[in-house]
Amino acid sequence: MVGDKEQFKMAMVKIVSDKFDIPLADVKTDALFMEDLGADSLDMVEMMVFIEEALGVFVPDDQVGECVSIDTTVNILLPFVEQRRMALCAKAS
Questions:
Q1: Engineered SS bond to 39: which of 12, 33, 86, 91, CB 3.0-4.6 Å?
Q2: What burial class does residue 24 get, using C-beta atoms within 10 Å of its C-beta: 0-12 exposed, 13-18 middle, 19+ buried?
Q3: What's the predicted TM-score (pTM) here?
Q4: Tell me: the pLDDT tens digits for 9-63?
């Protein structure tokens, strides 16, 4: 699971780098999207929709508001990603 979390975190770093036009090496996982990176509410919605579509998961609205940095987003979304992976594995069996 640790490897999965680190892979997921690196994928989030890439998404944030692309979305906010920040060099990959400069993206800090504890940087706050709105306060530190200058994201507005539309940026946040677009990013969450992109992440949900890319990962095939749905994040409840009450938890989306808690996604304030890469670190918190990974911690919130990882259970949904794991659940989706388990469902896909069960379906394939």
A1: 33
A2: exposed
A3: 0.83
A4: 998 999 999 988 999 999 999 999 999 999 999 999 999 998 888 888 888 888 9
Number of domains in the chain: 1
With a CB cutoff of 8 Å and minimum separation 6, the contacts of 5 are 74, 78
Here the tokens at position 37 are 């990176």
Closest C-alpha among 54, 53, 51 to residue 76:
51
Gap between the Cα atoms of 18 and 12, Å rounded: 10
Domain that holds residue 8: 2-92
Distance CA 8, CA 77 (A): 9
- Is 21 tagged catalytic? no
Which residue is catalytic, options 21, 26, 40, 62? Answer: 40
